[in-house]
Predict the structure of Arginine/agmatine antiporter.
Amino acid sequence: MAVQQSTASSAKGLGLMACTALVVGNMIGSGIFLLPASLAAYGPISLAGWLLTSCGALVLAILFGRLSQLVHKTGGPYAYTEAGYGEFAGFLIAWGYWITLWTGNAAVAVALAGYVGYLFPLIGDSSTYSLLTALAAIWLLTLINVRGVKEAGAVQVLTTVLKLVPLLLIGVLGWWWVEPDHFAVLNRSGQSDLAAISAAAAVTLWAFLGLESATVPAGEVVEPAKTIPRATLFGVLLAASVYMAVSAVAMGVLPAEQLAASSAPLADVARSMWGELGGVLVAVGAVIATFGTLNGFTLLTGQVPYGAALDRVFPPSLGRLSRFGTPANALVFSNVLASILVVMNFAHGLVGAFNAIIMLAVMASLVPYAFCALAELMIRLKGKEGLQGAALFKVSLLGGLGFLYSGWAIYGAGADTVYLGTLLLIAGIPVHVWIKWRNDRADRRGASA
């Protein structure tokens, strides 16, 4: 049973390369440039955490790939949840996922300003210049995405290639500088091996957020039933390989104490191997990485509310297309909110602003994974063909693994994050009631006309 959606979209412009770049670009952001320092406290055993998280991400990637073959609609997690569980559940996921995107945009823009400040001290030493840099990045990429998905896709491919260069140099060539003695103590955490692996896996989870990115602009994808599953799997495999290689080299090049204390761990690793030029190269890579992530999530801030508006779940104004065939209203409105959030939190400084904003995005990004894990089972059980025997077992097993992994990830996010995320989801209920009331009035007027 396939769920279709007709749109007045522009000509499809996202092929396999652009979709893979969207997945990789949205996952590989600022996280990999900071995580080696966070994982140094656990020691080399944290590589097992990377492996565990990579396996969970691959399960989710397979699930999203299968869902993209069942539901041919723009919206990604929203579209799959709506098809599986109904309109209200679909609204909650659209609401939460949309919040994730524009708050995430704000956080990535702040991180981008920080890396630019590292390269240009004049910007780094001025909160005003840093704020203007963050806002300029948001609106430059909003304008590019308003122009069209082909332009946004081209930017994504270019930035993904450029951001991978310094990471691949470290992950491939860095083995020549690895000191085997740094791996002598596998577990530095003081916890049991199982506890250390679980804790490290919880930390590494954030690096995989965005793995579903290719599913969201489905209406703009060339041959979505083939392209989206392949792009999602290729993207997750590539990102996981880069993550583990870079983390292993970082642990092997720098002593654990030095790595844990670093505010720019990969820049310090590159500087240790290749001198100051290496540090600058990685800093430039970090700027490109955050710029590419910001571009990818900007594209999604238009596509998610656009898809929901077409189904009358979001206000109809967000479902209107510009003369370029893009959801300009949704893009502009989402990034106005992102800009307001950046301005409101910048008084705390770069790091304070980043931490304050990212807390808003964490929980809202995990709940859609839990819903989507069992969405295929729900969709197929609702279809005329049903499910039984080996097919039922296969779908149930895959969905069960995805749901358990998502639930574990939500638990690992911490009580404060779960509390805040729940409040954000509940805040959407009055919005849903208002939209339903508005739709009902419009239907009555149409019937009486």
Observations:
- The two ends are 36 Å apart (CA to CA).
- DSSP finds 19 helices and two strands in the chain.
- The first strand starts at residue 3 and ends at 4.
- Residues 276-310 form the longest helix (35 residues).
